[in-house]
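Budget justification aside, the reviewers requested a transparent look at the raw inputs and outputs of the sequence design task funded under Objective 1. We therefore reproduce one unedited record. The lines immediately below are the structure tokens for a 318-residue chain.
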């Protein structure tokens, strides 16, 4: 911290004016007051600039990931941190120009864990630009979480694009969540054509919803391009796991099947890792908002038998 302050331009400026003030206090009194105010302004603006660029999704070389929201809010667990194995933590964040300090509470259900205790994942900022971050794990928790890597390079997800993807089609399935979540089965091909079946779960009994049933259509170009960007930045082809062990809670299970470059990649998860969350969000948005033409002819999609589901068993990953 002493080194950081020593090289702070505002501090150096104040030191220079302070020396001048000692030589001639009557002449420089007003100048000193102005300088102090200016230094506070410079420091405040510098700190804001240095932290605001962090608000983004950052992806590491081995698909480690950070999702950082409002850096000004240091209390809420609104940020996320995940390692190469896809383990994801909801964390709070404290930061300055040299450190990222993530915190997550230790469960009070664990033995010998006093209430209010937390784990601290501290990463030193080695290099930074508006496009990339080079971080060094410092705390024991951070070292263990990231597999004892000595150095981590993160890049903004929106700028790390897989330009080699030759998209063919994508299939998206969701399940119920104890009977209250709508169920979607969606297929989109490279010609922007889609087929979708929707079951609206949260509505009054015996009521009809215009959003339910079988639909076909063609997506507008801006929606299709948004999907392509999400696919090219999701790194779905690099994920090694075909399923998520955390199938534990009242939440829908999502299945994504991607055909690209003549290969099939599938992913199934209740809580998708940070790297694919944007793709999942885009697919949900398309499924909920995309208007199509209703058809009375049922169809079958890969991973779904073409019939409305009455339980979680109708969605399978092949």
């Amino acid at each position: 911290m002493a080194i950081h302050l020593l090289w702070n331009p505002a501090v150096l400026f104040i030191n220079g004016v302070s020396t001048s003030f000692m030589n001639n206090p009557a002449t420089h009194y007003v100048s000193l007051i102005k300088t102090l105010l200016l230094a506070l302004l410079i420091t405040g603006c510098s700190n804001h600039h240095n932290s605001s660029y962090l608000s983004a999704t950052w992806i590491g070389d081995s698909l480690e990931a950070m999702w950082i929201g409002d850096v000004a809010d240091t209390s809420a667990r609104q940020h996320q941190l995940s390692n190469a194995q896809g383990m994801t933590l909801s964390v709070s964040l404290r930061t300055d120009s040299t450190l990222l300090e993530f915190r997550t509470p230790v469960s009070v259900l664990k033995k010998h864990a006093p209430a209010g205790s937390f784990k601290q994942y501290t990463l030193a900022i080695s290099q930074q630009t508006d496009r990339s971050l080079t971080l060094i794990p410092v705390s024991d928790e951070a070292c263990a979480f990231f597999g004892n890597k000595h150095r981590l390079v993160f890049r903004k997800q929106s700028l790390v694009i897989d330009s080699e993807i030759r998209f063919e089609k994508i299939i998206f399935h969701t399940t119920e969540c104890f009977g209250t979540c709508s169920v979607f089965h969606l297929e989109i091909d490279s010609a922007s054509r889609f087929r979708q079946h929707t079951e609206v779960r949260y509505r009054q009994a015996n009521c009809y919803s215009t959003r339910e049933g079988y639909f076909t259509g063609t997506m507008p170009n801006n929606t299709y391009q948004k999907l392509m960007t999400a696919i090219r930045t999701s790194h779905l082809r690099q994920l090694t796991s075909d399923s998520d062990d955390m199938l534990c809670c009242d939440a829908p299970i999502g299945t994504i099947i991607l055909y690209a470059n003549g290969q099939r990649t599938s992913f199934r998860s209740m809580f998708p890792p940070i790297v694919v969350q944007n793709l999942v969000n885009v697919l949900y948005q398309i499924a909920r908002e995309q208007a199509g033409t209703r058809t009375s002819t049922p169809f079958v999609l890969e991973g779904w038998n073409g019939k409305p589901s009455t339980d979680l068993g109708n969605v399978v990953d092949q």
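The first strand starts at residue 57 and ends at 60. The first helix runs from residue 2 to 6. Computational costs for records of this kind are itemized in the attached budget.
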